[in-house]
Amino acid sequence: MGMNETPSSERTHIGFFGRRNAGKSSLVNAVTGQDLVIVSDVKGTTTDPVQKAMELLPLGPVLIIDTPGIDDEGELGMLRVRKARQVLNKTDVAVLVIDAQEGKKTCDEQLIKLFEEKKVPYIITWNKCDLTGTTQNQTREKYEVYVSARQKINIDTLKEKIAASVKSEESNARIVGDLLKGGDFVVLVVPIDKAAPKGRLILPQQQTIRDILEADAAAIVVKEYELRETLSALGKKPALVITDSQVFAKVSADTPADIPLTSFSILFARYKGFLRQAVHGAKTIDSLEDGDCVLICEGCTHHRQCDDIGTVKLPRWIRNYTARKIEFEFVSGVEFPDELSRYKLVLHCGGCMLNEREMRYREKCAADQDTPFTNYGTAIAFMQGILPRCVSIFPGLI
Q1: For labelling, which of 15, 179, 261, 389 has a CA lying 20 to 30 Å from the CA of 382?
Q2: Helices H, strands E: what count in the chain?
Q3: Which of 99, 111, 117 is nearest to 27 (CA)?
Q4: From CA 270, how far away is CA 91, in angstroms rounded?
């Protein structure tokens, strides 16, 4: 991702679904104006979800996702169908592509039912209308349109319907800007260690700085061992100290009690819509017993360092805190288990690479199976005994 690109987690996710050979890939190419996806008359050409970040007027930054055919067959085909269904969990608008020559099939009806169950806005797109003679949009339904990917018929109409399907009201969710006023300044504590990416800040830190600036406030960035001296030299209390969760203990000790303190991870739990659940879930750590299994999830895949927080530090901290023989399992990227009931706790990263819909989906999956759900920063603050302090800026959570 370039320095000035909108992160994928902040883009509207548009998923194209349907049967094999309905023309999904051709339609994606027509909508994007690019030969993004290989097109063939052979069924099952798209074997894995293909995604493209782009600007799509009048929506702006979007992520276009082409999925395998929902009617794929065989053992490998079932894996492809599972991949297609996983995409739906992060889809903001679904485009159901139906071959107008063949009409609606049972699997199309099942997809519509799935869209409605998951409350995903959708558009029924009757493709290949040039072959049926229905070149004008004859449907009166606002969520249906006749198109021809090959002849580029009604492609602009489809784009307009996609835009209209997105919530008209812009989200008011902020990372931290709503907690600040113009002229405030915030101190950000950013460790630079082996795990820090060379030459740049990680995405949550970048996004938090941007949100602070949008609030007409100032951001002061320091390393953990510079915090005490920086606070003494400022001559004025900052509105907030925000830290990387890995150095919570030192930062808490070096930040006077009258200065609000929280972490990037806690802010992102609120931003993604599950902070209350995360606070409740973190308390489960106190009830873990020998042999219990904790699932640790990361929303992205990255090169793991020798002291990786997800696979090394957190398991060590939890075992030390509980003095129990806890078992751990790990997943990353788009993988997320359907069956969670055997886990005593799901411990997730901040989710900066996942959009709000997918994070809410994961939390809801856990809730539906009575499995507590929390994230890294909330759990670390709980084990450090400072969680009440770190969420005190959000009244009513503790």
Answers
A1: 179
A2: 13, 14
A3: 99
A4: 20
Query: Do the beta carbons of residue 36 and residue 51 sit within 8 Å?
Result: no
pLDDT 10s digits, 11-45: 889 999 998 888 888 898 888 887 655 444 444 44
Query: Residue 202 above 90 pLDDT?
Result: no
Q: At CB < 8 A and 24+ separation, what contacts does 311-316 make? A: 313/246, 314/347, 314/376, 314/379, 314/380
d(CA 293, CA 315): 11
Question: According to the model, what pLDDT value does residue 54 have?
Answer: 82
pLDDT band at 77; cut points 50, 70, 90 = low
Of 114, 23, 6, whose CA–CA distance to 60 is shortest? 6
Topology classification of domain 276-383: Rossmann fold (3.40.50)
DSSP result, 218-244: EEEEE-GGGHHHHHHHHSS--SEEEE-
In b/e form, how buried is each residue of 133-147, taking b as 16+ CB within 10 angstroms?
Answer: ebeebeeeeeebbbb
Is the Cβ–Cβ distance between 45 and 38 less than 8 Å?
A: yes
Entry pTM: 0.74
- CATH architecture assigned to 8-165: 3-Layer(aba) Sandwich (3.40)
The structural domains of the chain, with segments of one domain joined by +, span 8-165, 177-267, 276-383
174: which DSSP letter? -
Say which CATH architecture domain 177-267 belongs to: 3-Layer(aba) Sandwich (3.40)
Q: d(Cα 357, Cα 92) in Å, to the nearest integer? A: 7
**Measured between alpha carbons, how far is residue 15 from residues 39, 92, 202, 225, 257 in Å?**
17, 8, 27, 46, 47
Pairing of strands 373-375, 345-348: parallel
- Nearest Cα residue to 361 out of 328, 344, 336: 336
CA gap 317, 305 in Å, rounded: 17
Pairwise CA distance, residues 95 & 121, whole Å:
9
Rounded to an integer, what distance in angstroms lies between the CA atom of residue 83 and that of residue 47? Answer: 9
3-state class of 331 per DSSP?
Answer: strand
